Amino acid sequence: MPFLNRIQRWADERPHDTAVVVGGQHLTWAELRDSSAALVAETMAVTALCEANSVRFAVKFAAALAGGRQCAVLDPTWPAPLQEDVVRRIGSAAQAAAVSPDDVLADGAPESTFLIGLTSGTTSIPKAFTRSRRSWQESFDASIQFFGLRPDDVTLAPGPLAASLNLYALAECLYAGSEFQTLDTFDVGDVHAAISYDRVTRLVLVPTMLRMLSERGLTGCVDASGVRSIICAGSKLDARTLEAARRWAPNATIYEYYGASELSFVSGAGLAAGEEPSVGGTGIGRPFPGVDVRILDDSGNALPDGTAGNICVRSPMVSNGYLWGDDGQALRSFDGWFTVGDQGYLQAGELHILGRRSDMILTAGKNVYPHEVELALAAVPGVAAAVAAGMPDDLRGQRVVAGVVPSAGAVTATQLRAGLDNILARDKWPLQYYAVTELPITDRGKISRNLLLDWISSGDQRIRNLGA
């Protein structure tokens, strides 16, 4: 089951308690149950839900999962032709179960498909994968245990519900009987207001949001002492974000984890209040409850501790596979061990993330992953953020170059090299450093290493050579 039977339980036990808040609009458990149940009769076997954040989203999502129904959540910011194409593909590819207007708001069979997940896409067609109800129940049990979610927590996930991070947070709270909040759209002031006045104890968000909230919260004296836990996903937290979050929310345990849409949770770590972080490292904690992790080579052979390879997972939380978009590489299986192609290694039981194989820089016969260079540079005093890439080099094949956003004033190549000492192996150090006024970001909000190389080649005004 995902969470519908739990909604019935909370509505019976605590009908007037708040279940969901979106942009100031509230739904009690009884209102959520009754509103969702009223929609079940008119809800088809497969629903393509494409709506902005609202309490209506939560109601429709619950109704779309009743019995054997399935739901795909589309991003409403996608262009209309892309939305229409995805809806057509879902209609032709989904294996719809038999449903009836007499169905009630209750969970279907545990092994049945309930969610059609979509990878992000704006101009290209996203991949579509499916999940069983049991896989999400297993995920709920693991994440509630790992993150310590309590019924008296108030969770704020200020991003779009169409994003898997926030959709999962909504469903997890419904399963746990814990209040969930989000906003119509992300706004720093609105998040600060919710933390100050709405008893928020738990934040679920991406690192860029956490940095903005923490730094502006410190400047504006926004009290976040009531926040007990901060859960970050999307990328490993850099030193500056971690330091700002620690000062702004001094009583919070700060969690970061590694996972993938197709794999669910893999590994994670929590930094308790007062605990000193390790800077510049690639470690992302130990496996989640019920998850086994191995590092395998491309032939499926196990690799020893400290040796990089494919991060492979054996877990009851893994998805069923793809409806479309499977190129044979996106989700591979080695005799029941699944990987999405991320590279890393195990060391004393801790998983270290290096990044995608396609990002790897091969320089003078040495494999260097930009992710580990960026984490190390972000830990250097005076650096707000960093991006690394491999530039063609006649002698080495590629050479490592890096762009840094200074946190205040100027930074020199000498300072950067000195800061990397004892953090990053010397043979992975960049050979050239550049100061950038901003990180090279794509239209989809992701860091682009190719764009950094374009800026360097064209002498873009946003970049300045700091020398070797």
Supply database-style keywords.
468 residues; alpha/beta; Rossmann fold; GMP Synthetase, Chain A, domain 3; 2 domains; 9-stranded mixed beta sheet; 5-stranded mixed beta sheet; 12 helices; globular
Description:
The protein has a nine-stranded mixed sheet with strand order 2-1-8-7-9-10-11-12-13, sandwiched between helices. Strands 3-4-5-6-16 form a five-stranded mixed sheet, with helices on both faces. The protein has two domains: 4-353, 3-Layer(aba) Sandwich (Rossmann fold); 360-467, 2-Layer Sandwich (GMP Synthetase, Chain A, domain 3). The protein is 28% helix and 28% strand. The protein has 468 residues and is of the alpha/beta class. The chain has twelve helices and 26 strands. Helix 1 (4-13) packs across helix 2 (29-40), helix 2 (29-40) packs across helix 3 (55-63) and helix 8 (207-219) crosses helix 9. It starts with a helix and ends with a strand.
